[in-house]
Amino acid sequence: xxxxxxxxxxxxxxxxxxxxxxxxxxxxxxSLMHQAVVTYxxxxxxxxxxxxxxxEVRGGGRKPWRQKGLGRARHGSIRSPIWTGGGxxxxxxxxxxxxxxxxKARRGALRSALSSAVRESEITVLDAIDLPQPKTRTVxxxxxxxxxxxxxxxxxxxxxxxxxxxxxxNIPRAEVMRARDLNTYKVINSDHxxxxxxxxxVIEEVLGNx
Length: 210
Fold this sequence. Notes:
- This protein is α/β, with parallel strands linked by helices and 210 residues long.
- The chain folds into two domains: 3-45 and 100-207, Ribosomal Protein L4, Chain: A (3-Layer(aba) Sandwich); 50-96, no CATH class.
- The protein has seven helices and six strands.
- It has helices at 21-24, 30-44, 103-119, 136-145, 162-168, 184-188, 200-207; strands at 3-7, 13-18, 123-126, 153-157, 174-178, 192-196.
- The protein has a six-stranded mixed beta sheet, with helices on one face.
- Helix 2 (30-44) crosses helix 3 (103-119).
């Protein structure tokens, strides 16, 4: 059973936390993590890009000039794709990029990503994230204490922490997520995870073998 040190906000060790082997010591499955990341990014796309064909552009119902006798090229519509303001040939159309991934595979990918973070010492467990009021400077100092200044850091909380959310808003490359909302892309895209101690059982409940 893997263990990680539990640190307070001053950077001092206060305890050790035992982690569920099934969740935090899973074998690395690169292909499954890749599938989860591709699925997540595809589902973020709005797919709203749309160009009009010549059939959809307003106007152009009348032939611009007669077919013969003027010495000009033949044209049937001013909305032809070769005219300015005309339709677009083979342009993008609104579509869905959505991909599906079953729950078992999605959770397996997340276990693999979290286990990799533990093995590579890219996780810090905080005894408590206690901010009496939103204050960006407090979080910046906290990151400096842990040697994480300028790195992509993901804070994981057991529940919504409004003070932390507001404190992190103005810090580039820092983000806050609830444990139940955690996903493979966010874990992999972060240089370091800062997890509240009370978030550990929530993660293990969601990803556990029960």
